[in-house]
Amino acid sequence: MKLFAKLLGRLVFIIILLSIGLTLFSLLTGDAPTITDIKGGYGLVKESSRSAYIAHRDTPDTPVIDSIVISYAVSGNIIAVKQAAVPAEDAKPDFTTYTYWLLDTATGEVFGPLADEAAFNEQGSQLDADKFDKWLGT
Questions:
Q1: What's the mean per-residue pLDDT of the chain?
Q2: 76: burial class by Cβ within 10 Å (0-12, 13-18, 19+)?
Q3: % residues pLDDT > 90 (the chain)
Q4: Residues 2 and 65 both lie in one domain
Q5: Is 84 in the same domain as 40?
Q6: Residue-wise pLDDT tens digits, 8-51
Q7: Do 93 and 131 reside in the same domain of the chain?
Q8: Side-chain-side CA neighbours of residue 45 (13 Å)
């Protein structure tokens, strides 16, 4: 009985140490960002349920198109992005005002912010990318 109690005590001690180690590991490593591949090595990186940006898969912590991406579409090598107005600190996002962006995945060139849909359509036509697949929300 004494041997059983000693083994049980050691087992509990090991479990406690393992729990502390796993907790510290999770706190130090943090959460990896969720990346949804779009095209040409670029993807949508979710920061939170309401905030997302576009980045290259090789550098997911460096936005190519900043938050707050609302939706995106693809036409050939071009990714079109619809972005909500990025708020100043301590302000709520304005989901009624949008800017548009175009990203050429072949060259990495970014066009934007485009102030309205007319400027977006004009730039898309210049890039031969005026026929986008369906827009996908973030």
A1: 87
A2: middle
A3: 49
A4: no
A5: yes
A6: 889 999 999 999 988 888 777 666 677 899 999 999 999 877 78
A7: yes
A8: 21
Using the Cα atoms of residue 47, residue 129, residue 106 and residue 133 in order, give the sign of their dihedral: positive
Structural element, H or E, at residue 120: helix 117-126
Which residue's entry shows tokens 């210049």?
A: 126
Predicted local confidence at residue 135, as pLDDT: 86
pTM of the model: 0.73
Q: How many helices (H) and strands (E) does the chain have?
A: 2, 9
- Domain with 4, as residue range(s), is 1-30
Task: Measure the CA–CA gap between 102 and 55, rounded to whole angstroms.
Answer: 13
38/23 same-domain check: no
Structural domains of the chain, count: 2
List, for residues 51-108, the tens digit of each pLDDT value: 899 999 999 989 999 988 999 999 999 999 999 876 666 667 777 888 999 999 999 9
